[in-house]
Amino acid sequence: MQTDFLNLPAFRVIKVDESLHDYHVTSEPVAVQTACTSCGSENFGKWGSREQLVKDLPLHGKRVGISIDTKRYRCNDCGKTFFHSLPAVSQKRQMTERLVHWIGQQAMKRTFLSLAEETGVDEKTIRNIFRDYVSELTETVRFELPKWLGIDAIHLTQYRCVIANIENNTIIELLHDRNMETVIEYLSQLECKEKIQYVAMGMWWPYRDAVNRVIPKAIVVIDECHVVRMANDAVEKVRKNLRQSLTPKQCRALKHDRIVLQKRKSQLTDQESLMLSGWVENYPELGLAYRLKEDFFKIYDSQSSEEALARYAAWEISVTEEVRDAFLDLIKAWRQWQPYILAYFDHRITNVYTESLNSLIRVLDSLGRGYSFEALRAKLLFCEGAYKINQMRPAFEQRTPVFRPGLGRNMVGFTSLVGTSCYQDLIGDDSEESKNYGADIAILTRMIECGEI
Predict the structure, then answer these.
(1) Which positions ≥6 away from 317 have C-beta within 8 Å?
(2) I need a labelling partner for 262 at 20 to 30 A (CA). Which of 155, 379, 399, 424 fits?
């Protein structure tokens, strides 16, 4: 039983000692050292030994430590000393390769402290393994470059830049800040960046300038939600200013006013419509702000950029002096970003899925009690099971016609695919090309809500 205890063919188990929390396994390498690790010479001799403790995967809920009597040798040709090669043991750390890989995978969805307690490995070492694992994933995992790119920001101690594939609703990168230089650096290293046709973003000029510099042919589109949000913000300013001039009794009459005023008129219940009509009658300024908000939303019902521009011009004229200060930020933003705002009406792409993800990223960050940026980025981008992958299979390969003797002038046979290299290519895994579009936002949402990451 002891021979199979570790399930590591490279080691022979000599003894197993069990304590309350641990397994202490005494073992030795099965293979014999045949050459010097420096020069490859077979002319070497023994030069002492040492006992080496190697951590392994937890077993039966207990930590596992393997004590290996490692022999030391001295090469008679190059004069260097070396230890017996230990297969399946990490070259960088005193633990098995399978434990290193397991810790890297588990650290994507568990805390470093819980892994340290389960394996008996120092928490700092867990953290370093995680960083190496993420670096390896960053080098090897490649996401398909989208035709529709989304750029957004999220505030986590500071602003971070979120890059999304809005064609497939996936997240493909999280940058450590939203500065123009950072975005330029990211866009510049993309292969075939000319493939990007449209870029949806918020009204943040470093994004626009970075895209225009690196991908000048891409069409910049200001996302709808960023613009209409400013109309809601204007109504909120009017509401707050009004409340400051009211008595406590009057304020109580405006109960739930914020929720009602943020809704579209078509979304109001009968009770909310009745409440709103009373507020509009008693406070005309509030009613005016709500009507202007509703009229601005109707601009986005336009079928073309020309129609949207005409509707906006009529809307701006209707903004009277009573509420103009509240809507001033919206008016300025439209004037400064007008070509990019109007581009939406000809190319209706939106970052709405990325916007919904931002709140969940904050939830994930709070659950981890403030993950480092590197840990949060890794959990979002490389979460196992969250990728949206499309398997591309080759076209059906027809059999090749072959003229065979004895079948007549017009009779042909067909070559068999079975047993040929062509057939092996068809059934082999290498025949299927997979396209990884990044972490699916809907799957990430479910996994975060279920506590799976």
Answers:
(1) none
(2) 155
| Distance from chain centroid for Cα 58 | 29
What is the torsional sign of CA 341, 346, 347, 349?
positive
Tokens 């019902």, located at residue: 301
CB 27 within 8 A of CB 66: yes
How far is Cα 269 from Cα 256, in angstroms, rounded to an integer? 13
Question: Which pLDDT does position 413 carry in this prediction?
Answer: 52
Cα 147 from chain centroid? 18
Q: What are φ and ψ of residue 427, in 5° steps?
A: -90, -15
Burial class (CB in 10 A: 0-12, 13-18, 19+), 353: buried
Q: CB burial class (10 A; 0-12, 13-18, 19+) of residue 292?
A: buried
CA distance 438 to 434: 12
CA distance 199 to 207: 10
345 SS3 class = helix
Residue 197's nearest CA partner among 159, 257, 148, 245 is 148
Hey, what amino acid is at 280?
V
Rounded Cα distance between 411 and 322, Å, is 91
What's the CA gap between 98 and 66, in Å, rounded?
14
CB atoms within 10 A of CB 282: 12
Q: Which fold has domain 149-223?
A: Nucleotidyltransferase; domain 5 (3.30.420)
DSSP secondary structure string for all residues of 368-414: TTS--HHHHHHHHHS-TT-EEEEEEPPPPPPPPEEE-TTS-TT-EEE
- Locate 436 and state its tokens: 């990884």
For the segment 25-59, what is each residue's pLDDT rounded down to a tens digit?
998 888 788 788 888 888 888 888 788 899 999 99
Q: Which amino acid is at 41?
A: S
- Rounded CA-CA distance 77/300 in Å is 82
Task: Quote the mean pLDDT of the chain.
Answer: 83
Helices within 65-122 (DSSP H only): 97-106, 112-119
Return the bridge partners of 198, or none. 148, 219
Q: What is the pLDDT of residue 103?
A: 93
- Report yes or no: 194 and 217 within 8 Å, Cβ to Cβ: yes
CA pair distance 240, 283, nearest whole angstrom: 13
DSSP single-letter state for residue 31? S
- Domain ranges (residues) in the chain: 1-88, 90-140, 149-223, 224-346, 394-431
